[in-house]
């Protein structure tokens, strides 16, 4: 596994070793010892899998209690994945990092606690899987507007169309209104 730092401290792009032949491929997506040796002593408590159609945007989500670290990947299709720094004392507070995750490169993104997360589906559909370091806490979940001008995220919108959003995401807070994290 290759661990590459991103411009946001703590966020890493991971590239697994993939072994393939005419029968298909094999890759190790999680190995506690490999991660520990790379400096990531993680304990996951929840594993999630979603499927979404082209043009759907999920996020930007985070929890104020039971903040979650997430190891995310697209196992089918392609998404543009985004992490936004919400750590109040961080020199990169309010900055974002985005990367295309797909079923061809099979890369993953490690997003530590203290970040909002979201993704936009750029393929016909996408299966998105993520491991979490804390359980889902709906009472403390916050959604930040995907198009907040203070964040100015450069989403690769298909044909420039507004993405399809959940009701919760349509009513999201602005970045200025959103609580910061320790």
What key phrases describe this protein's structure?
about 40% strand; mainly beta; five-stranded antiparallel beta sheet; about 180 residues; about 5% helix; Jelly Rolls; six-stranded antiparallel beta sheet
How would you sum up this structure, described in words?
The chain is mainly beta. The chain contains two helices and 13 strands. The protein has helices spanning 32-37, 167-170; strands at 2-5, 12-15, 18-21, 24-27, 46-53, 57-63, 70-76, 78-85, 96-102, 108-111, 115-121, 125-132, 141-143. The longest helix has 6 residues, at 32-37. The mean pLDDT is 96.
Give a brief rundown of this model.
The protein has one domain: Jelly Rolls, CATH 2.60.120.10. It contains two helices and 13 strands, in the order ββββαβββββββββα. The chain is mainly beta and 182 residues long.
Q: Strand count, sense and closure of the main sheet?
A: 6 strands, antiparallel
What percentage of residues falls in helices of 4 or more residues?
under 10%
Number of strands: 13
For the CA atoms, what is the radius of gyration?
16 Å
Low-confidence stretches: none
The coarse overall form would be: globular
What is the strand arrangement across the widest sheet? 1-2-10-7-12-5
CATH-level-2 architecture? Sandwich
Mean pLDDT: 96
Q: Helical element count?
A: 2
Domain unit count? 1
